[in-house]
Amino acid sequence: MRKGIALLAFFAVSAGAQDVSRVYHFANTQSPAGFQEVVNVFRTVGDLRTVSVDTANATLTAQGTADQMALTDWLFPELDQPAGGPPPANHIYTMTGTDGVVRIFHLAHASTSAQVQEIINVVRTALDINRLFPVHGPGLLVVRGTADEAVLAEWLVSQLDVSKPTPGAPEQARQFLGVRDPEIRVVHLSHTDSPVALQELTNILRTITDMNRVFPVQVADVLVFRSSADQVAFAEWLVGQLDQPAGQQGPAPHQQQLAAAWARSDSEARVFYLTHADTAQAMMDIANAVRKTAKVPRIFTCGQVRAMAVRGSASQMEQAASLIAELDK
């Protein structure tokens, strides 16, 4: 039998609609894991309940409506590709409905499962796209969403699927309309290039700015964050202060006044650069002393530039400055 799609000559009536059955023959996918990934895409992207694989005969059987089968007829040959093959020729499929765009991305550089999963996690969470699934063999990502979501996913994947970091590349920005967190940024870091330093900067941004959606992408040395315009501007300032060469201070001013409503009473933020504390333990000792004495819960050390990021009230900031000057000797 010819490899590809074989139509079974039977139709079943289900819930008042005529269901169609297909049998697809794998030509390139050979592993059980690869078979299961295609099944996962059919079930989640195609909304199919009845999907099964015959591993002995390398076939996949699916059943659904005529519209669903039209989608899977397009999907199957695009997914059943050899490893290292060319990108899909027809990478967009459009259906009716609000989330009627299916997009296939060919990952040119993300080669490990960890790298692919990192991209999936960022795209799914930053863009609120739930239906995003990998097919690792040919290096594909399959996305289903609205037309706008598909465009944003294409932009973000292009920023994250890179062969190597591009330190100091221009910041990339996109906006959403009519949502709570309308701003998204991709910041290419210039000096923060180790996993420890990248995670340290991520933790500082999340806690000092109150942003939940901050994502480090190690392979590209970038930070992706999404929030309100005020919080994004605050995060950009912090990155500018802390993404510096070892031992170098960020550009002035080192203190920010937060006027936005979300800032509450702890509306002051400041970065203190230490001159004498030169070990992680020494920095932590100073931070603990300031946290306890000035009652400032949000104080975090940044080892790369020997700095402390602090957020609190104006009086807490004054007390923290006094304590740090006294202890950093």
Describe this structure in words.
- By secondary structure, the protein is α+β, with helices and mostly antiparallel strands.
- Among the domains are: 1-80, 2-Layer Sandwich (Ribosomal Protein S8, Chain: A, domain 1), CATH 3.30.1370; 87-163, Ribosomal Protein S8, Chain: A, domain 1, CATH 3.30.1370.
- The protein has helices at 32-45, 66-79, 113-127, 147-160, 195-209, 229-242, 280-293, 314-327, and strands at 4-14, 17-25, 50-54, 59-65, 92-94, 101-106, 131-135, 140-145, 172-175, 183-188, 213-217, 222-227, 255-257, 268-273, 298-302, 307-312.
- The strands form 4 sheets. The protein has a 4-stranded antiparallel sheet, covered by helices on one side. A 4-stranded antiparallel sheet has the order 5-6-8-7, sandwiched between helices.
- The longest helix is centred in the middle third of the chain and has 15 residues, at 113-127.
- It is elongated, with a radius of gyration of 25 Å.
